[in-house]
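ingest -> validate -> predict -> emit
validate: passed (alphabet ok, no gaps, 373 aa)
predict: started
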Amino acid sequence: MGTTAGAAVWGRAEQQDFRSRVRGTLLGAALGDALGAPVDRMDLDGIREAHGPEGPAGPVAPAHGRRGAVTHLTQLTLFSVDGLIRAQVRRDTGAWHPPTDLHRAYRRWISTQHDWGPDERREDDGWLAREEWLYARRDAPRCLLLGFGDRTMGTPDAPRNPGERGPEAAARSAPFGLLVGWEPHLVVQLAVECAVQTHGHPAGYLAAGAYAVVVHGLARGDSPEGAVRRALALLAARTGHEPVSDALRRALGAVRQGLPTSGRVAELAGEGAAHGLVAAAVYCALVGEDVRHGLRLAVNHGGPSAATGALTGGLLGALHGETALPPSWLAELEGRPTILELADDFAMEMTQGPALHGPAGSSPGWLTRYPRA
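emit:
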């Protein structure tokens, strides 16, 4: 599938920048999810009546019984990170098929939706599956429950839910873009192979691939427009890419149509399929004056606001890093300590992996957190 950058090529400043972008991506996606959750699929008139013409001013309205609550989108994004770390650790054993490791991670997530709590977990499930707050059920759609409901893993040749083109696979794909040592086409391929585990329509899985590689470009320091154009170039060779490519081109064109409006976001989002929401997120990331403005714009429409917010937050976090995120919003965010811990573990694995589980020695504590099994 590709390789991550070796620890020897990472200078101290590069490691710090990378960790900031990893934190920014994961926290930003969670913030967008939390901002959109209370108004998810509320009509625009209802949003304006409750929050004014600019939409929610922050994660101040309750969802799922609390302010700053995240949805299944953030839960699955965290298990994407967990699966990527486990894939790197398992590589020492000679086993190297990241989509399988991601499927195992997503199966650990779906167990949280059925089990009573972390006391039921096996020793080799690792630490993330023991985080009690992740056992909250947050309206996961049927395509996720079916796709991860048994051990059969969808593949590009035999995808699960062949007609599904919703945004859920794309919204859990930001972590693939943080594999900055991988070649872009391998990032696309991994995101696609993981997306088809639940979303079998090309508009669903290719949107996930496009989104991941845009995050990848931003995390490596590319301009937003440059990252999108690279995604378009990589999509061109993929069968069925036209809806995704057309949506991304519309997003780039919309930037030149004057001041950003919620109507333009709604037009790009369309009926709420993955390619439309990825395009809307790209637009919000391109025109947002800052993270706060971009996220408010992303959720202020009568569609899947949580998914649009999560997708936009991942892009803005990868672009600007964690210090650009609104502190008052972070203070309300559900699960923030877990997200930070996981982000730092991911950054350490990707920059210092050989020192944690390499030929020269290994850390027993690390292998307890991320078992090879």
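The two ends are 20 Å apart (CA to CA).
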